Amino acid sequence: FDDGSTRECVVNPLARWYKPWWYKHVEGFSKRGEVGTEYVPVKDYLLRHTRAIFWVIEMMVPYGNFWLFRYLFGWLLPLDPTFMKLTTTEGVRKLTYQKQVFQDITLPMTDMEESVKLAAECFDVWPLLI
Predict the structure, then answer these.
(1) Whole-angstrom Cα distance, residue 104 to residue 68?
(2) Are 3 and 34 in contact (CB under 8 A)?
(3) Looking at the DSSP assignment, which residues form a beta bridge with residue 39?
């Protein structure tokens, strides 16, 4: 959140249909070793994972974050999960059951390291949303 300062900074309305998925945007910063400051509108920040449906859509629509797909069809995302399930091939469906784990838990920060190690040992599925 910003206190209204007049600093020059980039405003990134990241929920726009043609923009890269949020986690891919952050991944790009990380890979390039960049450090920067961006202002993100509150609504965009709160809904930042909606278009990518928390990394699941990348498995179902692997080309979904490609710039040309985003430009032409990005406005269609996020797709209705029911529609996506109906149109998925048997191979992708099988991969989904073998390579996805959804687990919502609350635990003390003191147990975080041990929990991440256990999740890595049991599932070996990445990325891990903490």
Answers:
(1) 34
(2) no
(3) 11
